[in-house]
Amino acid sequence: MAYHESMYFLVFLPVVLIGYQLAPKRGRFGVLLFFSYCFYFLFSHRLIVYLLGATTITYLTGRLVATGEKKRRKTILIVGVWLLLGMLLVMKYSGFFAENVNALFGTINLGLRLPVRRFLLPLGISFYTLSAIGYMADVYWKKIEPEKNIAKLALFLSFFPIIMEGPICMYSDTAETLAKGEDIRSENLIRGYMRIGWGLLKKVVIADRLYVVVQTLFDGYASYHGVMIVVAAVSYTVQLYMEFSGCMDIVIGSAECFGVTLPENFAQPFVSKNASEFWRRWHISLGRWFKTYIFYPVSMSKLTRKWNRFAKKHTSKYIKLMVASAIALFPVWVCNGLWHGANWSYLFYGMYYFVVIMIELMLEPAVKKLCAAWKIAEDAAWWNVLRILKTWVIIFTGELFFRADTLGIGMHMFRSLFHDFSIQKLWDGTLLTLGLGRVEIGIILVSLLIVGVVNHFREQQIDVRGVILQKRLPVRWLVYLALIFVVLIFGAYGPGCQEVDLIYAGF
How buried is 415 (Cβ within 10 angstroms: 0-12 exposed, 13-18 middle, 19+ buried)? Predict the structure, then answer.
């Protein structure tokens, strides 16, 4: 197990829980703030100054934007947003911008060259920047009152479980509960640690094992073709889901120990019937942020209103809707791609889903007519299975490009998919050359089956933890111990195993 994970579970969280419970109720949010900053400093050291700066900008903008006339308030909001975005753009994207401008200058033989600077990114900068911008916008729209206590706002932005990988919270999600400082309850502790254990199973038993396969295939991409490219895409998609959703289980479980309910970030995304539904179920908090602060404002913008007035007189309702949808969705998917990092692969990934979702929207009326003509019930099991399988193809293809180090490598792997497609490589021993033995592959498959069963219950709105807590004491302890021993015995750590960095912590 990686050092930061060991620290988190074996030392940090229990220490915070004890310190929190021992503190007087009025000072508990201060205890959480202190430990959150300690946690941040542990991993970012002097880069904590960026978090402090972002917090100060957010606090001042919120206070100022809540007063004065509308034009002045809007100007203050724009300045505050661009101060935060400017910090993010310089730290994360300036090197990428300079490299591409230099490449363009070289193409046209222009004797200019921008300096390419690389910055060490502060931990969680993409996550807390979006939360801060959301807070400022909500104050401007008068959805919430501006926070007068800067310490409480600082805790909202830095709460240690969410600072590394989210979820991206709105102020109304957590601020009030964090400030209350309620007593720690035994039920919350039990439910929280059950969810932490479940997240660890997904992370260290499945995702960290698949890391070896994914690394082998993507590093040696030039040597693999056909079905092995499919294995690469599927393995990475499963690794990403198991790690990110597992980390979200750990984060949500950690917050639950304090009685804080964080928004869910995943809702069984692999039962989605189309790409739009997939993104309503995958990285939900990011999608909600884009929907609230980009999609809706663009939908109500002057450009969209002008188009709607023009289209009402000159085009059909269908064309009007498609163009209006494209106007609102395009910036969402540009931002989605760029949010993940300064890489053409990520930008392509965003545009890929923009095109796919637009195609789905355009074909939706025709598909409905086809189903009516062929008398296909929309809830027919076989029809839904076909739609889910179609969505899997979309998902796996997208993640192939998402994982590739460059867009060129992604294109190479996609083309290789259609060469030498020998399906027998799935059982002729080729899979055993990727770094895992039969036993380890068996552990992954059994663990995936368990996760699949639990996700099925969750899709049926069954509270699995609630069901377990209603069982008799011996049964409950059997489940607790089984979860602990599975993680300890089958977790991918120990001699010979690599420490696997958190994927989304890099975004």
Answer: exposed
Contact 286, 336 (CB under 8 A): yes
Q: Each residue of 137-160: b (16+ CB within 10 Å) or e? A: bbbbeeebebbeeeebbbbbbbbb
Between 306 and 94, residue with greater pLDDT: 306
Query: Could you tell me the pLDDT band of residue 497, with boundaries at 50, 70 and 90?
Result: low
**Arithmetic mean of pLDDT over the chain:** 91
Confidence bin at 1 (pLDDT 50/70/90): very low
* Residues 6+ positions from 152 with CB-CB distance below 8 Å: 29, 175, 178, 179
Cα separation of 418 and 115, whole Å?
A: 41
Query: What integer pLDDT is reported at residue 2 of this predicted model?
Result: 46
Torsion of CA 294, 297, 299, 304, to 10 degrees: -110
Give the number of other CB atoms < 10 A from CB of residue 461: 6
Q: Take residue 77 and report the two structure tokens written for it.
A: 């909001």
The DSSP-derived string for 357-415 is HHHHHHHHHHHHHHHHHTT--TT-HHHHHHHHHHHHHHHHHHHHHHHSSSHHHHHHHHH
